[in-house]
Amino acid sequence: MRETATILVVDDEASIRTIVRAYLEQAGFTVVCVDNGLAALQAARDYTPAMIILDLNLPGMDGMEVAARLREHSDVFILMLTARSDEVDRVAGLRIGADDYLTKPFSPRELAARVEAILRRRRGVVAPTNELRFKHVVVDPDSREARAGGQLLDLSPTEFDVLLALARHPGRALSREQLIDLVWGADFFGTDRVVDVYVGQVRRKIEAVTGQTIIGTVRGIGYRFSDERL
Fold first, then answer.
1. Domain 128-225 adopts which CATH fold?
2. pLDDT value of position 89
3. Is the N-terminal amide bond of 105 cis, ω within 30° of 0?
4. Tell me: the pLDDT tens digits for 204-217?
5. How many angstroms separate the CA atoms of 204 and 196, rounded?
6. C-alpha distances in angstroms, 157 versus 61, 97, 99, 144, 164?
7. According to the CATH classification, is domain 6-124 in 1.10.10.10?
């Protein structure tokens, strides 16, 4: 039997909380619901959820600020719900540390499918391999930690998965489609623009520490991880 995962739902609309709870509980999850940002931060500490479904348009502290505060101390999966269809808002959510987004109005069945898909990635991405050691970067798939220049990188779960996929193929140009297959698999929802956002985030975090461009863009193809293997 699958271990029951706790999902925290943060939305100020009672009708949305009710229907999301019903679909997720039917899928076998334990569901905790709150209606504002401060309550979300407290519930994240109290319940240690496997995932947080987070509305952007919350009263007081909005979803962007909640996500930013969560990322200061947690790598919990975050799926953002937004009524904003503008790509700028979606990309901003991904950059602040969200792992996926869904635009309102949405299908509760699709939402439940995305939750299951994202949680499967955490179980499936870790392979029985030793850490990957390079001159500037070390990636440990077992602890799900990565270091650059000896400093622990602050990566979201999806950012780590992207780095791990690239580091497992050093010197090889991987297309966006290949990265989608390696990181998200058949569960991917969205466009290849999502890949660009995550690769860019990882690249900037490594460059900020090492001053080196470890992940390069291969024009017309995708991205290449270039660091000397130790």
1. Arc Repressor Mutant, subunit A (1.10.10)
2. 65
3. yes
4. 999 999 999 999 99
5. 12
6. 23, 9, 7, 8, 11
7. no
